[in-house]
């Protein structure tokens, strides 16, 4: 675990450098703060800042020089005491240009603002769409243009948007700040126009410099496009603080919160409870008791469906319902005259899915947010499970979870495989935050199972061609397939593609979940809970 935490620290530190020290120095020479420096200055001291998508783009776009953190810094923080989403283009990365992952990350930021009704601040410093990849970022539903659609919908919903133009703001990107409720600009460094000087020259033959075309004076005093101008980054950011200081308060969802209490069991012991060998069993209750307040967990139907732990607890004072995979082997209670079956850890059995569905429905009835702790290999297979109706039990759980109106949060602790990922509120089921520990792995099945399956297919194909593999060739091919598949199991592979919002130290779990619930509490539940047709 320590080596995994060291890797997390090293990767985080490197990624936070964005385009590197030279590019950072270039920003400073222009009199500009970097994206992270702007956020540090803007956000309230001593308050949490939950970064979203730090590892977005990692290992991608190597042929284009990479795109650290997707070229944009996103997080949930506080400005003048108000919780909000902050989005800051990182001009040290390709001048803040939008890669495909940049668009995905910006849309994720807006999604968080929309579903939690959080104000959003855009610190704009971007050269616009990265042209070599324009076909992957321009025209589709979840591409660049969706950002402006969300601008319009956020404003219509009464969710405050404030934009500061602190560098380039070009072409279609110019609509983002101007579709916000308030737009500010920094003199000398900020500029906004639909077409820059080179394109204007090429299009209509006009010679004009950037400042005259779309600088602060032009766009505030002459065009009236921007609301106000400021002499430097800090004075502009101070203005945003004053805006938030005077903004009215909105209705809350009313989720229950009492005074926070730390776990009585030492959270540091999580590192020992979680085995290094992911095949080894462990008691998930020991993990839960090191996350929840006072280490108190009120189990729901503890003797039934034991492969899932369901129960009520508090996290930093917030009331939550927890659904967690039990990773130790348990023995189910048999009917009269029958022996109960032994159930493997990390596998969802029919009785557990049945229990979880009812528990999820109860949490919706009582307006209690749900937390899913994943370490799941999938649903039980085999004739006994099929004859017992495992598919309908799983469908019942998925239906109850998918239709939940209370906010859901997911933490991937270990395995997240196959339909188990879905039933335990994977990314496709709209968790408000999806987090991963460094021990997490996500895929349709484990590396060992996938590699053996793929090898069998290749062996059969070669045999059908009359060219059977030798044992040595089989081992060589197995290693090649395993290595390739295991690389895709990494939590950083998932984080690079925004399948998870963050890879975190287990000791950050309480704080980040608490901030997620505080954000969710800004959005009252207006939709009735209905699960539709339940498979009984």
TrEMBL record:
GO terms for biological process: L-leucine catabolic process. One of its GO terms (cellular component) is methylcrotonoyl-CoA carboxylase complex. Gene3D superfamilies: 2-enoyl-CoA Hydratase, Chain A, domain 1. PROSITE patterns: COA_CT_CTER (PS50989), COA_CT_NTER (PS50980). Pfam families: Carboxyl_trans (PF01039). Residues 266-531 form the CoA carboxyltransferase C-terminal domain. InterPro entries: AcCoA_carboxyl_beta (IPR034733), ClpP/crotonase-like_dom_sf (IPR029045), COA_CT_C (IPR011763), COA_CT_N (IPR011762), MCCB/AccD1-like (IPR045190). SUPFAM superfamilies: ClpP/crotonase. Residues 1-259 form the CoA carboxyltransferase N-terminal domain. This is Acyl-CoA carboxylase subunit beta. Residues 1-30 are annotated as: Disordered. GO terms for molecular function: methylcrotonoyl-CoA carboxylase activity. It comes from Spirosoma profusum.
């Amino acid at each position: 675990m320590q080596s995994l935490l060291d890797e997390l620290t090293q990767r985080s530190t490197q990624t936070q450098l964005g385009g590197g020290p030279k590019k950072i120095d270039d920003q400073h020479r222009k009199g500009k703060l970097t994206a992270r420096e702007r956020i540090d200055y803007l956000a309230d001291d001593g308050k949490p800042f939950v970064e979203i998508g730090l590892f977005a783009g990692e290992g991608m776009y190597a042929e284009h020089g990479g795109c650290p953190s997707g070229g944009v810094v996103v997080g949930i923080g506080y400005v003048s005491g108000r919780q909000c989403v902050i989005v800051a283009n990182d001009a040290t990365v390709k001048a803040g240009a939008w890669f495909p992952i940049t668009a995905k990350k910006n849309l994720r930021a807006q999604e968080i603002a929309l579903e939690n009704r959080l104000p959003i601040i855009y610190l704009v410093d971007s050269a616009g769409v990265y042209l070599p990849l324009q076909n992957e970022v321009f025209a589709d539903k979840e591409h660049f243009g969706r950002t402006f659609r969300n601008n319009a919908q956020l404003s219509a919903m009464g969710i405050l948007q404030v934009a500061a133009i602190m560098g380039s703001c070009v072409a279609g990107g110019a609509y983002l700040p101007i579709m916000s409720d308030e737009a500010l600009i920094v003199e000398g460094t900020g500029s906004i126009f639909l077409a820059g000087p080179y394109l204007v020259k090429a299009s209509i033959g006009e010679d004009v410099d950037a400042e005259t075309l779309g600088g602060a004076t032009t766009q505030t005093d002459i065009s009236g496009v921007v609301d106000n101008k400021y002499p430097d980054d800090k004075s502009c950011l101070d203005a945003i603080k004053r805006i938030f200081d005077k903004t009215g308060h909105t209705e809350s969802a009313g989720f229950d919160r009492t005074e926070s209490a730390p776990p009585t069991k030492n959270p540091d012991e999580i590192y020992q409870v979680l085995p290094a060998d992911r095949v080894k069993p462990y008691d998930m209750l020991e993990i839960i008791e090191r996350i929840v307040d006072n280490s108190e967990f009120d189990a729901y139907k503890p003797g039934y469906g034991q492969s899932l732990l369901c129960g009520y607890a508090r996290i930093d004072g917030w009331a939550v319902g927890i659904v967690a995979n039990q990773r130790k082997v348990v023995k189910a209670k048999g009917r009269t005259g029958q022996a109960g079956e032994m159930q493997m850890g990390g596998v969802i059995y029919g009785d557990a899915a049945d229990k979880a569905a009812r528990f999820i429905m109860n949490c919706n009835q009582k307006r209690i947010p749900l937390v899913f702790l994943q370490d799941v290999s999938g649903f039980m297979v085999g004739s006994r499970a099929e004859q017992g109706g495992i598919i309908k039990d799983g469908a019942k759980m998925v239906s109850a979870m998918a239709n939940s109106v209370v906010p859901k949060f997911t933490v991937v602790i270990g395995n997240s495989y196959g339909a188990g990922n879905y039933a335990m509120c994977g990314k496709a089921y709209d968790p408000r935050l999806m987090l991963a520990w460094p021990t997490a792995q996500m895929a349709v099945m484990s590396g060992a199972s996938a590699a053996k399956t793929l090898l069998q297919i290749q062996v059969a194909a070669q045999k059908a061609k009359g060219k059977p593999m030798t044992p040595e060739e089989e081992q060589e091919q197995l290693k090649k397939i395993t290595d390739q598949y295991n690389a895709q199991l990494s939590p950083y592979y998932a984080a690079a593609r925004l399948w998870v919002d963050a890879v975190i130290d287990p000791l950050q779990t309480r704080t980040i979940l608490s901030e997620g619930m505080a954000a969710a509490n800004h959005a009252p539940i207006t939709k009735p809970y209905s699960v539709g047709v339940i498979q009984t």
